[in-house]
Design a protein that fits this description.
The chain is α+β, with helices and mostly antiparallel strands. The protein is 42% helix and 26% strand. The protein is built from four helices and six strands, in the order H-H-E-E-E-E-H-E-E-H. Strands 1, 2, 3, 4, 5 and 6 form a six-stranded antiparallel β-sheet that branches.
Length: 165
Amino acid sequence: MDILNYLQQMVDLASEGELQGIWFWASCYMLAVCLYSAYFQIQTRFWASTVGKIHNLELKKFGASSDLSEQQYRGKALYSYNVDGQEYEGTRISPWVFVTNYNAKGILIKQQAGIDMPTKDTVTVYYNPQKPKKSFLLRANKFGIMITLIVAVAPFIGYVSRFHA
């Protein structure tokens, strides 16, 4: 069976609501999204850095919930930095955006603990040399990139083992 016939078969199965077709296309989607994410994360490992001024770094409630265990949190930052005489402001902490609940907000605390702060008022800022207004306080690390790549291929491994083993 050639690839075009196989893809058409998967379209037909997905349109009929069959698990194999849905799983195949969901796997394709995950592969595309995660490969793009890994590519972006790898790029950020080569960004330049400078020392900036930290204005705000906190955990912020995200959404509203009356149940404490269902309350969502995300990291929030505000910092300024200078590149070639031009002043910029940034708000992004990491290429990975984490939103978590009250019970797992320790993940965000640990993430923020990894931010390099030479003094209590300064922070190392990683910025895109071609577009200095794009910045983070954390570079993507090898472990995170590896996890992204595993998440990219895991659905296909499951698909093949389920439908082609």
